[in-house]
Structure prediction request, 289 residues.
Amino acid sequence: MAANDCPYCSLAFEENRLLAPRQPAIQGRDVEQLQRVLQQMEYYNGPVDGIYSPATVEAVKIFQISRGLVVDGVVHEDTWRALDELYCLTVTRRKTPPPTGEVSIVVDTKRRKLTIMSDGEPYRQYPVAVGKYKTPTPVGNFKVLRKAMNWGTGFGTRWIGLTVPWGIYGIHGTNKPYSIGSYASHGCIRMNNRHVEEIYPWIKPGTRVILIGNPFTYQPSRFRVMRRDERGGDVLEVQLRLKRLKYYDGPIDGIWGGGMERAVAAFRKKNGLSPDNAVDAKMYRLLGL
Prediction:
């Protein structure tokens, strides 16, 4: 399937806009994509012109009725999600040819979407589950380390391990398909088994994997108070800031060891903070985070 046959791929890095009936009618590329999806799923037979017309509104209402949603003709978050899920089911029933270009993976931790890229262009997108607040999914640039089938209980039918330096993280299937689309894992990226089985042959060790989001607040919450032996993307970001300010000269690995402990102590002393070796709210602000 070519990239332009998958309308949601081109929305991989955008927020879904709320579409509502109004005069003059809302127009845009997202409306055009909505019309194309509804047309492919046989809810809409009008023109694909990017205008949220009365015919498009009626098609949305019919879809909402079929999925047990509030029937208001407004494409809000619940309707976008239902459209996405049904579309994924529809296209997954077809045999998807492998991408012809160089494959890379982008995971958006905020929107809980995994996009397969082919030569830098979106090719196929899937809903995923990512880490809970206390066990967040790493954010950064990594690579595929290893692959395995039936790696272990709870990991579904496929495992794609990543080169995250501070722990074992991967993209894998799940025996909890109801968790897809939520913040539910211990940091791994969960996919429906049929989805991870589809992408598995396309992925090789060394494939680039980009996990995007805010390592501190990729879910709405305060920054955690960080101390010795912590690990994660937020630790890595603090290491980068301390290194830039010439307090830290150790590895940028997301692991709080002895070198970072000394750097934090020196930074706090220099900036008149209490001698409590922690990255707290005051230190985050002084670091510009």
Remarks:
- The longest strand covers residues 140-149.
